[in-house]
Amino acid sequence: MASYETEHARDAPQTNRARRPDLSSLNALITEIAPEARERRTREHAVPVPGDISAAFTQFADALQVMQRENDNADTDLLQNMISNLLATAERPPTEVKGVDEEYIAKLERVPIKKVKSDADCPICGNEFREDPHPLLVRLPCHDSHIFDMECIRPWLLLNGTCPLDRVDLAKKERDRKQKQLDDIKKNAAREDEEEEWDGLYG
Ligand SMILES: [Zn+2]
Ligand SMILES: [Zn+2]
């Protein structure tokens, strides 16, 4: 018996919709260089291999070049900026990738397809959201209208951490937020210690 997926693929209408290049090997590579992968690495590979970081940035630039070339609807200027940015990083790979983590991606606001304008498209691949048979859309916290295909924005956020449209550094904001949280916890702990000392004196 055919699986749901094959059944579905056969029934899907043939449209001229430009397809996104397959990003699965890129996603696997990103998992390897993500900061969270550090615990899984052996001691001698405590930081990702610079070659792996370069490869991830180059692979994503290649994928964006395909989108730029094959989709008439694509915003070529935006893509060109993203591609130049990725290639520059590939040339001088950082020791740690400065993007957001998977936890951040998981918490991004999902946008139901019914809530977007009928002709709205993904700023990265240029495909209209409604033409996607299985749309998965996310909104970035920087602006209400900054909505993307999850598949398109995920690698960019993991590698780069900024909004491609307004360049708000979401990764830095998230790092600052977490740091403040840590500082608050430390401050509270210090205050509690102090209170205990006073209790000890007068108790
Ligand atoms: Zn897209
Ligand atoms: Zn934005």
Automatic annotation (TrEMBL):
Annotated InterPro entries: Znf_RING, Znf_RING/FYVE/PHD
Biased composition (Acidic residues): 192-203
GO biological process, one term: protein ubiquitination
Span list, region Disordered: 1-24, 174-203
Gene Ontology CC annotation, any one: cytoplasm
Pfam family of the protein (one): zf-RING_2
Gene3D superfamilies in UniProt: Zinc/RING finger domain, C3HC4 (zinc finger)
Biased segments, Basic and acidic residues type: 1-11, 174-191
Keyword Metal-binding: yes
Entry keywords, A to Z: Metal-binding, Zinc, Zinc-finger
GO molecular function: ubiquitin protein ligase activity; zinc ion binding
PROSITE patterns recorded: ZF_RING_2 (PS50089)
Domain RING-type stretches: 122-167
Protein name as annotated: RING-type domain-containing protein
Organism (species): Lithohypha guttulata
